[in-house]
Amino acid sequence: MKKESELRERGAEKTSRENRKTQVRASSGYAGPLTLRKAAEGLTLERYFTRPGVDPFDEVEWEIRPAVIGSEKGEIVFEQKDVEVPKFWSQTATNVVASKYFRGTLGTPERERSVKQLIGRVVRTIGVWGRAQGYFGTEADAQTFEAELKHLLVYQKMSFNSPVWFNVGVEMPHPQASACFINSVEDTMDSILTLAKTEGMLFKYGSGTGSNLSPIRSSKELLAGGGTASGPVSFMKGYDAFAGVIKSGGKTRRAAKMVILNIDHPDIVEFIKCKQEEEKKAWALIDAGYSSALDGPAYGSVFFQNSNNSVRVTDDFMKAIETDADWWTRRVTNGEPFESFKARDLMKMMAEATWQCGDPGMQFDTTINDWHPVPNSGRINASNPCSEFMHLDDTACNLASLNLMKLANDQGELDVTAYKKAIETTILAQEILVDNASYPTQKIADNSHNFRPLGLGYANVGALLMSRGLAYDSDAGRDYAAAITAVLTGQAYVESARIAGIMGPFNGYEKNREPFLKVIKKHGSHVAKIDPAHVPLDLYNAARECWDEAYELGARNGIRNAQATVIAPTGTIAFMMDCDTTGIEPDIALIKYKKLVGGGMLKIVNQTVPKALKRLGYSDLQVKEIMEYVDENETIEGAPHLKDNHLSVFDCAFRPLRGSRSIQYMGHVKMMGAVQPFISGAISKTVNVPNDTIAEEIMDAYIQAWHLGVKALAIYRDGSKTAQALRTDAQQATPAPGTAEFDAAVRAAVAKAVAERGPQRNRMPRERQS
Question: Please, are residues 358 and 698 in contact by the beta-carbon 8 Å criterion?
């Protein structure tokens, strides 16, 4: 009888497992194999932030307020009354969440009106999926997960990427949940046009995409049927047009895309200069009287404004720059050498284009693939729009970012235990999303389920350093940031290995086991380069221990996710979390103004300065008088009581209107070099440089970034575009973008530049197409 009972139980368990597989496939739209644990197993979760039987929402004081965004002209561009938010959330966070993330038609009963509804639908949906797939050992574990996740979100300690807020719990049963996609393209018309469709569908649901167009034959090569090929730059015009008209997530933000070309492609010169040439056309239109706004007719009528462009370079090319050697481009069709340049001339060309319009950026191919955890499954050729997600072609990544300032203790130090717990909960939530999200192509679906890459990151590191009295551009600041990043990825892989012990490793793990564990060990070895004198002991010990544990658990269980972390730009979600600084960036300025696409202006005031002043020993009265000076003068230079040796703590990316200090470009690059060894993917980082920076300095920044092991770099010279989204000058100091006064000022500046340059004759080539 006992044997017969056991057989029945086993049969019931098998049926239950098959039913769960069917449920997961149905909810995810995925038809491939799924590995599920035995019903008796599951993750055991402990509470840290919450208490059993207490809803985190009930611990928060709520209030009703309007969400209103006005333009610089006094017009209301968005308004929703009676919005329910936590009382400690700022008005900026309220405005951003209500205007961007609340779903339903404005003014109808279906419209979301409370942050409880927004966070509730996301947490509830992920919890249901986790139960269905068998991640939790018991119902109590599932409830613990939901409560801990809800706490992180409502207290602004973490936020998912925008597509989760747009779609999860709304677009059922399989919402698009990833912000980052990499799409491949082949040298066929079918593949080229399919890419346009895939990108359009990604933009529709709020995601960004990147592609390396180097497989497309150049405009200097022949077609199989005769005639000359169009080349990748010509197809970029079509891709750009679609990106410009398909709004991200159905909202006002334009689509985000990355276009990459290898340095040995025959069309590389045209690619380097394409955006620079279009920028000149925009200047001419502005000079003729058209608006200079980012979404105005001048920029709306020129090409390549919806993409970030990057040149992919190898170590061989960078060494050729240093030795002033020749560099050959190669035909796409047969790989034969095509045209010779001085490597240094191509580098200067890139620096000059970046100086003028902010593009192209650079990606360092050899470095990227040296840190590749799954090289036996293919190489890394491309990235997402902001260069932080770098993985196999046709893959996707859902992002989430931790707010470091909200995870600090009362003394202003990072609470290491809370930080690790937040990492564990977030990684589990992101992992659950993988099988339940939709993907635009079968290739991306297959790779997402087989490799399961995640992108956990952080925001507000610049503010945390400032609050501790540490200069962003200092050895102490870099070591502190490196230790934080080491724990981020090390603990993420620890949690990924724990999940693998229950759900199994990703399908490509065994094929890549040796190189994967080698990369884990390589990450961990860099902890020894952090000076422990600059880092609190608990943080330093955590950085060392988590990598040892990740290696040991990974060797035993395997790893569930082929990639765990990136440092994303955290644009909109940084406002949702009331961050002073985004991603890994320092503050752009102590007081700044953000012009919103679609209209509106937000004044953003740094809230970290008072904490830093108190940490440095200033009295309450001194802090009050210094802050009054900052508010009036928009700079801290010259403030009463402030000691000269403390000025560097408050240095920002841009030089203030009434000041002379800013972070020198190598301060940005060195910070990236310090944290890159501890990131699975890469870092979205724009090196913001002052307007008077010269092209040679931009060239030097790129070269030094390569030396420091950075994977990718973008540089933006303040004011190099006639319109920019984030400004450091108040509208009363200079005319606001989009106004007649601003357009007149731009026309005057363009006219002056043309006059100083004088007339130029550009000769046509001796041979050209008819």
Answer: no
